[in-house]
Amino acid sequence: MKDIQFKRHRRLRRTESIRALVRETYLRTEDLIYPIFVVEGEKIKNPVASMPGVHQVSLDYLTEEMEELVNLGIKSVIVFGVPAEKDDVGSQAYHEEGIVQRAIRQIKEEVPSLAVIADTCLCQFTDHGHCGIVRDGDIANDESLTYITKTAVTQAEAGADVIAPSNMMDGFVAAIRRGLDEAGYSHIPVMSYAVKYASSFYGPFRDAAHSSPQFGDRRAYQMDPSNRLEALREAESDVEEGADFLIVKPALSYLDIIREVKDRFHLPLVAYNVSGEYSMIKAAAQNGWVNEEEIVLEKLTSMKRAGADLIITYFAKDAAKWLNQ
Ligand code: PBG
């Protein structure tokens, strides 16, 4: 029988030192953005049942939480607020003394080295739980932009370093950019949730943020998971409107989209490793079915390999500990 020619790929895998020489993708603690949930009240550190290891914290515990992040080498947080009161226009979202605005001010005063990213949405603040203003059972796009822009401006006034709008109204980047510029915040970047699918992977977050829609669902504004070209159109319009970062969300079932967006647009790209992706691994790990450390690092690395520059993840603290070992 004639000799078959073949390649010896295993030469480059023979020892750990050789594998390290040819490693293509690195996960760094600096790539990780940690989401925090702040609540009104005092001495509150409420575990979120569906997200083991994640808590809602009141402001008196916030500084120590933030110091822990800095000590681990994490450089940024994204702040989600859980207000005590909700109404039909989400007025606590843009109140100067809203929970998010107070949290931002406190972090910038007490732990100034952290970059503070403000999630800009109405759903935690509206009594109907939708991300915009409801008119005749529908989410009124252009009217919602007014409230969302006010929210972004008050977050910038409070000291947010980055504004991250997640509401999926059309034109939110343009509206927020204009609002920030007019208010004197032309130096504050917009990290747009440009590509956000209507995903069941957000289930546990809605427990954590008390933001479930009280009627209907979000499919009239978030994207259909079946669609790929639509993701590119969304990203394209946000780039044109002045976004400084693009987010693709969720991450794990959408690695193909991360790659396509990365290949076409030249902005820093953020993957949002969402709550359901977190909870599934936590549950499996608690049952002893998977090795948590290995699986989390593999998963986060795969997001970077797909093209993400940064990752918003509830695993940030765990991953930082493992990476620092
Ligand atoms: C709010 C918002 C959501 C998430 C981030 N911002 C929920 C939603 O759209 O229902 C989900 C985050 C996660 O699941 O981790 N607009």
TrEMBL record:
InterPro entries: ALAD, ALAD_AS, Aldolase_TIM
GO molecular function: porphobilinogen synthase activity; zinc ion binding
PANTHER family named in the record: DELTA-AMINOLEVULINIC ACID DEHYDRATASE (PTHR11458:SF0)
Binding site for 5-aminolevulinate 1: 206, 218
Cofactor entry: Zn(2+)
Stated name of the protein: Delta-aminolevulinic acid dehydratase
Active-site residues, Swiss-Prot/TrEMBL: 196, 249
BP GO terms, sorted: protoporphyrinogen IX biosynthetic process
EC number(s) from the headed UniProt entry: 4.2.1.24
Quaternary context: Homooctamer.
PROSITE patterns: D_ALA_DEHYDRATASE
Keyword Metal-binding recorded: yes
Reaction it catalyzes: 2 5-aminolevulinate = porphobilinogen + 2 H2O + H(+)
Taxon lineage: Bacteria, Bacillati, Bacillota, Bacilli, Bacillales
Pathway: Porphyrin-containing compound metabolism; protoporphyrin-IX biosynthesis; coproporphyrinogen-III from 5-aminolevulinate: step 1/4
